[in-house]
Specification:
alpha+beta; 17 helices; Glutaredoxin; Immunoglobulin-like; globular; single chain
Length: 495
């Protein structure tokens, strides 16, 4: 979870700074005198902003994952006036809300973590072209702790060890993670009296993510499985056991990020105890993961874990089993809505009747292809993995070039019509002239079709049978040269 809060300005002139100081003073006085507990106000002062600009706030009531699930976020916009913006957030619950703020005209070298807000905050943000300068006002203490933790993570850099993608780099990752946890927790404890209980727990959870820093280096590591397993058992597990705090199952403070960490924990222990490296993949062993977390956790934390688990494994063919069982006991209405909207491509269920246009502006619907097996490839310009998939998918299409009952359809999430057409002409992302290329009408990944397939990233392959029902999801053609996709197409033809 990384927040890019970018600001671009050269410097504050003395006169402008004096005005800012006066503005901050009176804002603090007003907030203190008239602010109500249920009111949360965020004010920012950035000199590069003009009256034509607006600042976007993406607020996540349950934590910052999944970022691409609109049902689990609320977006607000604050208009800029005289380089300043102010937004009142209706945060009614006493839990911590995660927010990502997008400021226009940003500088890529300037960034910060996700920001945490809670009911009653009156926070003022100021910055320069190089960095966000100050958090001030009621509730700012937790943001200063968050920034301190981030600076520690930045100073104690583990990226060099991660990039080695070898077992020899893993002990360094653990050692650096230990340093971050020790120093961050000491600082957090020193600030305990300045922040709420909810904020303290949220920050402690955020710090704990460093327990699982080895997850992605191992995920991307090729081979060396015996050495990885020994490392996890002899080095990582003792480190994890020393610092890991078993969660309070009755607490409401854990967010989706913590649910994600628990899945990392599960996968690494599966390697140690069962030599199961498939557990690293979100889409593998979904039913086993689901049953484990269903049995070992209860209450609101279980609901978060299960919701995260299902929504993060869109390629798994076990989604239907997990979804149909989960909605029997999940009580959070927002989770249920997200699951209902995102689990409609289970094998055997009726496919969404899309309406999209091709390069000649001819409209196509699912109902136009009755009796045909449809092979969908979802991509976007600039997607390196999509380009790698293209020749593999082209070879599969060649296998069925004389079969009119198989139709290959590419769908792009490009928002620019001209960019999409130029990419089709390049043939980097599409297979042949026989393929139908459809455009998401400038909606990008916000198009409803992407929601209906529980899209999580490109490339994504989907199959629809002759009756208009979703088939089982095929394996990525880059993994097996398209053998599984060919097998599933033939199965759909013979149903």
């Amino acid at each position: 979870m990384i927040l890019n809060l970018f600001v671009i300005t050269k410097s504050y002139k003395r006169q402008s700074m004096e005005k800012i100081i006066i503005f901050i003073f009176f804002t603090l006085i007003i907030s203190k005198s008239f602010g109500q507990k249920s009111t949360t106000v965020i004010t920012g002062i950035f000199s590069q902003l003009t009256d034509r600009d607006s600042v976007r706030f993406d607020v996540y009531p349950y934590g910052g994952f999944p970022y691409n699930i609109p049902e689990l976020r609320v977006t607000y916009y604050a208009k800029v006036k005289s380089h300043r913006f102010s937004l009142t957030l209706p945060l009614k619950s006493d839990r911590i809300y995660t927010s990502i703020i997008s400021v226009p005209n940003f500088l890529k070298s300037s960034y910060l973590n996700p920001l945490f807000f809670e009911s009653g905050d009156h926070i003022i943000l100021t910055g320069t072209s190089e960095k966000l300068m100050d958090f001030m006002g009621k509730g700012a203490a937790k943001l200063n702790v968050l920034r301190h933790v981030y600076n520690l993570e930045y100073a104690i850099d583990i990226t060099n060890a991660e990039k080695t993608h070898s077992v020899s780099g893993l002990p360094l990752i653990v050692e650096n993670s230990r340093k971050i946890i020790d120093k961050a927790n000491r600082y957090l404890n020193s600030q305990k009296t300045n922040i709420s209980v909810a904020a303290f727990n949220e920050l402690r959870t955020y710090i704990s993510q460093n327990l699982w820093s080895v997850f992605f280096p191992i995920y991307y590591m090729n081979g060396q499985k015996d050495s990885v397993r020994r490392f996890l058992k002899n080095t990582w597990l003792p480190f994890r056991n020393k610092y890991y705090r078993r969660p309070d199952l009755s607490s409401r403070y854990y967010d989706f990020a913590f649910a994600e960490y628990l899945l990392y924990d599960y996968a690494l222990k599966q390697i140690i105890y069962h030599n199961n490296f498939d557990a690293l993949n979100y889409n593998e062993d979904l039913k086993e993961k689901y049953n484990y977390f269903k049995c070992h956790y209860t209450g609101l934390l279980r609901e978060k874990i299960i919701t995260y688990l299902i929504l993060s494994a869109p390629q798994s063919n076990d989604v239907a089993y997990c979804y149909e069982d989960a909605i029997k006991y999940i009580t959070n209405k927002d989770y249920i809505i997200a699951l209902n909207n995102r689990c409609q491509c289970a094998p055997g269920s009726v496919a969404y009747n899309f309406i999209l246009s091709d390069t000649n502006n001819v409209t196509h619907r699912l109902t136009d292809f009755r009796g045909k097996v449809l092979v969908f490839d979802f991509w976007f310009t600039g997607c390196g993995n999509c380009r790698e998939l293209t020749p593999k998918l082209r070879a599969v299409e060649d296998q069925f070039k004389n079969n009119s009952n198989v139709v290959f359809i590419s769908v792009s999430s490009d928002k620019s019509l001209s960019l999409w057409k130029n990419s089709i002409k390049s043939r980097f992302y599409t297979t042949s002239s026989d393929e139908i290329n459809l455009y998401s009408n400038g909606n990008g990944q916000s198009d409803i079709l992407y929601q209906k397939i529980n899209f999580s990233g490109a490339p994504t392959l989907r199959l629809i049978d002759k009756k208009g029902n979703w088939c089982e999801n095929p394996i990525d053609c880059r993994i097996d040269e398209g053998k599984d996709l060919i097998e599933k197409i033939n199965h759909a033809l013979n149903k």
